[in-house]
Amino acid sequence: HHGEVTDLAQECARLKQALVVKTAFVKALEERESRVMREKKLLEQQLHAVSTKHKELSDRAYEIASDAEETQLHEAQVLEGCMGHVADLEAQIAQLERSRKEAELAHAQELELALSCARLAQTAAVERPEPATQLLQDRVTGLEQENARLKEQLAGGTADALPPSLSAPQQLVALQREHVQMEGAMQQLLTVNTRLTERVQELQEEALGTAGHEQKLLKDLEDVRSERARLMECLKKADFLQAKEGAVADARLRADIEDARRRLREAEEEAHATKQELFVAQQSLAWVQGENSSLRAGHGALTEEATVLRGRLQSAQGQVQTLKELVEQYTAGMDTSDPERLMLGSVARSIAQALDHKELAAASPGPRRLQAARRSRSAPRQPPNSTPNSARSVASSGYGTSPARPRVVGLSRDTSSSGRYWAPDRPYMGVELRAENDGYGNKENVVVVDAVAPNTPADRAGLQVEDVLERWNGRSLNGLAVFERMLHSCIKREVVTLDILRGGVRVQTKVVLGIIKRSPSSSRKNVL
After folding, report:
1. Which sequence spans correspond to the domains of the chain?
2. Which DSSP state fits 417?
3. Do the beta carbons of residue 397 and residue 409 sit within 8 Å?
4. pTM higher than 0.70, yes or no?
5. 489 CA to centre of own chain
6. Which residues pair with 512 in a beta bridge?
7. Is-contact 424 394, C-beta < 8 A?
8. Around Cβ 366, how many Cβ atoms within 10 Å?
9. How far apart are CA 445 and CA 437, in angstroms?
10. What number does CATH give the domain 384-528?
11. How many CB atoms lie within 10 A of CB 454?
């Protein structure tokens, strides 16, 4: 009983140590959860900042759209004004064209009139170099003939029958007056010809000025058209730049929003996983505390039983001592000459020796009791809601991504349980293994693949039946226990490198460990 009490005390100390480790692990999980919450809060702040930025960009886009509308309206007004100015210029050009045509027609008429006058003057100068003198001579000749005719009439006695007429001096005066009038008309004609020539020159100069003004108007029209084309090109470029800037800003904003949402989802998933791990850790801690309480109760009961046994042992030792004293007294006063008394003395000494052996046996637990205590101590303990069959069907361990969890599980129970504590999520490979001898006297130290489950990590990695697993991440595999321990020390979704002997050829493959969501119900022992 003393050995069992010592073992129980050691077990209690180990459980206390595991409880301390569990408490530290729970505290670490709480700190991690608080850190995740802080990160989540930071992500929410970033999301709020992104939303604010999106709102600012939307306002800026609205302002840009408003400015673009105002610019388009202003450009439309400018374009409308330009079009009106162009229409006015075209009307002025048409009016100038009509004026030019009218001026050309008047100029042509004046030229024709001047040419006619010049021809008349030339004809008069060529045909009648002295029109007044010739006319005067003709009139004088006519007057002389008339005078001769009158004289003949007078001589013939018909003077009373002729109408009265002017005398010769009067007719001469009239002819001189007509000559003067004809010279004045000729002078007026020359004056009109001079004026017409000057007007023709003025019209020619005006036509030249009209052509220059027309060229200027055409140049202004070309400038207006080029300005309009430039404004249209600037408007198209502004629309393109605005559309491009809006598309780039929208793409950047969508990327920021998607990144923030992704990070928020990751934080929520991590927080959910942390909560699950914390729940599992709390359950494990409660189970460890229950085991600790039961061990404490058992330790108290064993202590009481040991106290009772010590009392009984002390009373038995007193009785033995009294019996030994009686035997010594009997042997001391015994007559050695009597054979019967001598035999009784030897019997009494044998009884005393036997009592000494019983006392030693009572004081020491003995090898059998030590073996029984070790067997009871090495018996696997199961957590709540678990069975040995479900615990031995698939060998895996770990709660998540923390490398400290397999160590905590190993401390919270006996290490010889070989993965019999199961978590809700744990890695697995999906193979059934068997152990064989290596042919050098070592028993069951060769790990051989006996079966590969379909659609499992082992199947996807290309493992085959009768493959000999030699190394796990460079470490030798000397038996199924080593393989299970390696698997128990992994985290979920870890990539493992296996060295395989297949048909006498060594190959290497990588296996991504899967995750099993519940305890398997298979009864096969070596499915990993």
Report:
1. 384-528
2. G
3. yes
4. no
5. 36
6. 495
7. no
8. 12
9. 6
10. 2.30.42.10
11. 8
